[in-house]
Amino acid sequence: MSLKVYYDLLSQPSRAVVLFLLANDIPYEAREINVLHGEQFSEEFAKLNPMKKVPVIKDGDFTLTESVAILRYLCRERDVPDHWYPADSKKQARVDEYLEWQHTNTRSNCALYFLNKFMLPAIKGTQPNPETVARRERKMVATLNEVEEIWLRNKTYLAGDKISIADLLGACEIEQTRMAGYNPCDGRPKLAAWLERVRCDTLPHYDTVHALVRKVTEKYGGVPPASFSKL
């Protein structure tokens, strides 16, 4: 098997890549990297990705980092349905439009809320800083409202009427907020319906890659534990 995938399902971009592979029956060799244990900082992993982040793929002798680049590459290199990343220039541009926007919006704001409200306090054994959390929550709420009111205003999916890699990346980022005790669907019926569509379109794999998210959400209820070294 030539395709190796280095990932941690605690990582939103990792989940998107693994979900895409599973949903399209693409064979791969799983190489799990435990981020909580700092395995991404090992000398061996740094040779694959000097940025020391997951996910990473190694396709034969070709190594690639960054989830958006990985998903675009897999759409080109593997035999997958066109709707994931359409060949049509205008349809592809709609997918790219969201992918460019999400870096400083869905990706940044959901992740920073999760990190400050839950992850960093759990790792450091401290309480969340209320002012920082409130600031991050305001930015995240604004982003989620834009998903509801703009991206899903007159579309079934983020980039059109069919699921694409944009939806996988968006859904995985938004699901992350649940571990910090936030329900992104409250007051957002379009977003809630869209998340369920993405889930149903990719079952059972959506539930598989989000099993850890559900476990942490149910176990801690959004309250950072004293120790987060074991899940």
From TrEMBL:
UniProt keyword Cytoplasm, yes or no? yes
Keyword match Transmembrane helix:
no
Q: Return the EC number.
A: 2.5.1.18
Instruction: Please list the reactions this protein catalyses.
Output: RX + glutathione = an S-substituted glutathione + a halide anion + H(+)
Q: Which residues form the GST C-terminal domain?
A: 88-223
- Segments forming domain GST N-terminal: 1-82
Q: Which domain of life is it from?
A: Eukaryota
Gene Ontology biological process terms in this record: glutathione metabolic process
Localization, per the record, is:
Cytoplasm
Major enzyme class: transferase
Alphabetically sorted, this entry's keywords are:
Cytoplasm, Transferase
Any GO MF annotation of the entry = glutathione transferase activity
Which proteins does it associate with, and in what oligomeric form? Homodimer.
Query: Which PANTHER family does the UniProt entry name for this protein?
Result: GH16740P-RELATED, PTHR43917
What the record says about family reads:
Belongs to the GST superfamily. Theta family.
Q: What protein name does the entry list? A: glutathione transferase
Instruction: Identify the species of origin.
Output: Locusta migratoria (Migratory locust)
